[in-house]
Write a structure and sequence with these properties.
Shape: globular
CATH superfamily of the largest domain: tm_1862 like domain
Largest sheet: 5 strands, mixed, barrel
Number of strands: 17
Bound molecules: 5'-deoxyadenosine, iron/sulfur cluster
Distance between the termini: 30 Å
CATH architecture of the largest domain: Alpha-Beta Horseshoe
Order of helices and strands: HEHEHEHEEEHEHEHEHEHHEHEHEEEEE
Number of domains: 3
CATH topology of the largest domain: pyruvate-formate lyase- activating enzyme
Helix content: 25-40%
Strand content: 15-25%
Structural class: alpha/beta
Strand order of the largest sheet: 13-14-15-17-16
Radius of gyration: 22 Å
């Protein structure tokens, strides 16, 4: 979501006459879009601003801006610690960025931090986005999250669920397709809840069908789905709509029922596994990926073993694992039995070791198969890079004329993160 916000912020800057600078020193504006999901990105912000301040000392007209979730969480505290900041706006105020920029250019401090999303938040959809990838585009369909996972700061930084209207989503996608985009990646903290907050409720599966009807949409992905909201209708739509990619990111967070309960995730290990096995049965060869938090307060060796058990049973193609990071104001941060960092490190290392073996095994299954790959980029003279529908990076030899095309290719070599292929034919 932050990445997509940055694309929007870049789009706004472009319409206001800004262009990317080659060096920090020549920049008229340095903008940092922040994340506060874990402590580490949070801590980096002040040291970055410190660096930019040195640049500003030599070029006093240069503006420093800080945006994003950290501003939502700690805004005023931030500007007290780093008075060099000229512009600050939170994740609720991106649509106000043009005004703020004008104010700052006129020499005022420009700060907008709202407690709640404003009424005119939807104005944001009218602003253009600047994207690096001409063939694959993120499209935000829902903002915020109504779940209250006890470790998570998102409901505090992004607010409650607000679905974007069907018309607005489809209109953006039509424009993207006209511009040559072939893969649409629907985005939201909890995409599977899309439409539940409409006066006349809609279901996420209806959105999938509607997007698929747009001529020129060759591929559809979506993140992040919540296991509770992933129901039979969505699974059915995924199985029946040819453009929906053969991949799903479905965060489990932990394999222990005791920890899942403390996290308030709303499902058990068994319920999660049931959905996974249904997905695997209905959608042959689906590539599953997940998020896991290691060292949640009070996590025992037995709890951790339960997580390892799920990993071994499901065989995820990819796992994003994180050490639990206490976030200010979240219930989990004040649970007494916090796990020491050495234990978190040991557990995450063990988990990654096991996952490495699984990934090598999965890679082996790709070798010798024929995959459909959307070519996204030409690197160097003749190396094409693209992704399979299962979201694997693949490299092959070929020329610029193949960029943006979907090709069928034979997998010659497969490593855990990359496939080396040979193009057989252009599909479309
Ligand atoms: N500590 C560690 N990981 C976290 N995540 C969210 N909050 C925390 C936290 N406090 C992880 C979850 C989520 C992913 C985006 O970040 O796994 O799915
Ligand atoms: Fe955070 Fe995701 Fe839970 Fe929402 S569903 S509170 S975004 S972890």
């Amino acid at each position: 979501m932050n990445f997509n916000d940055s694309e929007r912020i870049r789009g706004i800057l472009r319409t206001m006459g800004y262009e990317p600078a080659k060096t920090w020193e020549e920049a008229d504006l340095i903008l940092l879009n922040t994340c506060t999901i874990r402590e580490k990105p949070d801590q980096k912000v002040l040291s970055h601003v410190g660096e930019y301040k040195k640049i500003k000392e030599k070029k006093p007209d240069a503006l420093i801006a800080v945006a994003g979730c950290l501003v939502q969480r700690a805004g005023w505290e931030l500007v007290q610690k780093a008075p060099a900041i000229d512009i600050m706006f939170s994740s609720f105020n991106i649509h106000q960025f043009p005004e703020l920029l004008n104010q700052a250019q006129a020499g005022y401090k420009a700060i907008a931090i709202l407690e709640n999303p404003p009424e005119d938040e939807d104005k944001i959809w009218e602003y253009p986005l600047e994207r690096d990838n001409p063939y694959c585009a993120y499209v935000t369909v829902i903002k915020g999250c109504d779940k209250n996972c006890t470790y998570c700061v998102v409901p505090r930084t992004r607010g409650r669920e607000r679905s974007r209207s069907l018309e607005s989503i489809l209109e953006e996608i039509k424009r993207l397709v006209e511009d040559g985009v072939r893969e649409i990646h629907l985005l939201g903290q909890n995409v599977t809840a899309w439409g539940k907050d409409f006066k006349k409720q809609m279901h996420f599966s209806e959105l999938l069908w509607k997007v698929a009807e747009i001529e020129g949409v060759e591929r559809i992905r979506f993140t992040t789905g919540h296991p509770v909201d992933l129901d039979d209708e969505i699974i059915q739509a995924m199985a029946e709509i040819p453009q929906v990619c053969n991949a799903l990111h479905l965060p489990i967070q932990s394999g222990s029922n005791r920890i899942l309960n403390l996290m308030d995730r709303g499902y058990t290990k068994e319920e999660y596994l049931e959905k996974v096995f249904k997905l695997k049965e209905k959608i042959k060869g689906i590539a599953l990926s997940t998020d896991i938090i290691v060292g949640f307060p009070s996590e025992t060796e037995k709890d951790f073993e339960d997580t390892l058990d799920v990993i071994k049973q499901v065989e995820f193609e990819q796992i994003f694992s994180f050490k639990f990071s206490p976030r200010p104001g979240t219930p989990a941060a004040s649970i007494e039995n916090q796990i020491p960092d050495e234990i978190k490190t040991r557990r995450i290392t063990e988990l990654l070791e096991i996952q490495k073996t699984i990934m090598a095994k999965i890679a082996g299954r790709y070798k010798g198969t024929v995959q459909e790959i959307l070519i996204e980029e030409l690197r160097g003279k003749d190396t094409l890079v693209g992704r399979t529908t299962t979201n694997r990076w693949a490299e092959m030899k070929g020329g610029r004329e193949l960029t943006g095309k979907i090709v069928r290719a034979l997998v010659k070599e497969a490593s855990p993160f990359n496939l080396t292929c040979e193009v057989l034919e252009v599909v479309r």
